[in-house]
């Protein structure tokens, strides 16, 4: 359904489509509400929507959209209500909603989302006055999702139905707000460590181990059964002992 504000009257048109051409909404700059729900769209018609800078409400619910790409809604600076529910969305770019500073309602429930990579950046493009619907997804509650969870709680974002974790198994069926942030964890990952060192006997050797993870991993250096050091770097004063 399309709503057009023209001479303070509203017109209605019905739109049923599997594709929206770039020229679909040319000369409809006064369009304020657009309903493209329950069609067979597979992508966001970003080029068409760019012709509607005054749009305030947009529904793309019930389509076959799987991926929300970077800057998909950038020209829609007046948009305050966006419904992307009941699609098959599995991926959101971290800047998918850049420019939507007027957005007051975002509905992304009933999709196939597991995580939002780059969540630190993702929340920077959302208003703190936002109401958010994101239940009925397959959320993997780990360190990648933690920043979004923190942002929601710290800013008292309005959520009618609390999202729950689908993974990992130990957190399954628990609501985000009931889980301490430390449980939104990722296994440690060793980024770099040399396994061979060539030095003159008697010289000092500095060995570095770069590890990432959340919560921050603790590093323990051992030689045979003896604990040597607790840091990401160790200096061996007498290389001969380790040769």
Estimated structural class: mainly beta
* Strand portion: 15-25%
Strand order of the largest sheet: 2-1-3-4-6-8-9
Q: Gyration radius, to the nearest Å?
A: 25 Å
Gross CATH architecture of the largest domain: Alpha-Beta Horseshoe
Organism: Sarcoptes scabiei (Itch mite)
Pfam family, one: LRR_8
InterPro entries: Cys-rich_flank_reg_C (IPR000483), Ig-like_dom (IPR007110), Ig-like_dom_sf (IPR036179), Ig-like_fold (IPR013783), Leu-rich_rpt (IPR001611), Leu-rich_rpt_typical-subtyp (IPR003591), LRR_dom_sf (IPR032675)
Protein name: Leucine rich repeat containing protein 14
Your description of this structure?
- This protein has 243 residues and is mainly beta.
- The chain has two domains: 2-183, Leucine-rich repeat, LRR (right-handed beta-alpha superhelix), CATH 3.80.10.10; 187-236, no CATH class.
- 7% of the residues lie in helices and 24% in strands.
- It is built from three helices and 15 strands.
- The strands form five sheets. It has a seven-stranded mixed beta sheet with strand order 2-1-3-4-6-8-9, with no helix packed on it.
- The chain starts with a strand and ends in a 7-residue tail after the last strand.
- Mean pLDDT is 82; it is low at 1-14.
